[in-house]
Design goal:
With 226 residues, the protein is of the alpha/beta class. The chain has a single domain, classed as 3-Layer(aba) Sandwich (Rossmann fold). It contains ten helices and seven strands. It is globular.
């Protein structure tokens, strides 16, 4: 049976390309606001006391009046997983489009200086100061909805994608992918759904994993360049 071409590589970011599971939590811990504000906000959302929009609004307010440069500097200290550059370079070199899909913040995704598509939530900055507002582009548990819209817009079938993630929030998009890889999964269900589990987090192994799965770089066809 002939293998379908892979037309898109989808990467979660927090916990997948980085070792921090949440940029929201990371920043609030840096600001000494996690225990007093961040965690209670998350608990309130998880317990159904308010919706995701209110949860994000409360968290974003905690960054009000902080400069972009300060927050960007903090985010720049987040540790990337070993081999991330080699991995992304390979996809770029083989002309396989990349989508970074995250319920985190765009200020982290923008740290990855690659020709990729990016979908995440955006803190609002005016004159390089955070207003305390956030633009919600993807809510928790909305990855499947957002990815489906992206695929439809670019006329890509789910069976023509590779998905790389680490958490429960990635389950639905991993299920529809042609091939999925779990990176240091924090949920056993993720490891069970994934076609391959990369427990050591060494992302430079991903190209070879795909080749061994029969997904060699000769199959790609970039619809973004048509």
């Amino acid at each position: 049976m002939q293998m379908k071409p892979i037309k898109l590589a989808v990467f979660d970011v927090d916990g997948t390309l980085t070792t921090e599971s949440s940029v929201w939590e990371y920043l609030l811990k840096c600001l000494d606001k996690w225990d007093t504000h961040g965690k209670p906000n998350l608990d309130g959302y998880m317990n159904g006391l308010f919706d995701y929009e209110e949860f994000a609004r409360r968290d974003a307010l905690l960054y009000k009046d902080l400069s972009f440069d300060y927050l960007d500097g903090l985010v720049g200290k987040i540790t990337r997983r070993a081999g991330v550059d080699d991995c992304l370079d390979w996809f770029v070199r083989e002309d396989i489009p990349i989508l970074l899909l995250s319920t985190g913040l765009s200020i982290l995704l923008d740290q990855f200086n690659y020709p990729v598509s990016k979908i995440a939530n955006e803190l609002e900055f005016i004159n390089k100061k955070c207003t305390g507002k956030v633009k919600i582009n993807i809510a928790m548990n909305e990855k499947l909805k957002i990815l489906t819209g992206f695929l439809n817009a670019h006329q890509i079938n789910a069976g023509e994608t590779v998905v790389v993630g680490d958490s429960f929030g990635d389950l639905d998009i991993m299920k529809i992918a042609r091939y999925s890889i779990a990176v240091c999964p924090n949920d056993q269900a993720v490891a069970e759904v994934a076609d391959y589990t990369l427990d050591d987090g060494e992302l430079s192994k991903i190209p070879e994993i795909l080749k061994k799965a029969g997904l060699s770089p000769n199959f790609q066809h970039s619809v973004f360049n048509e």
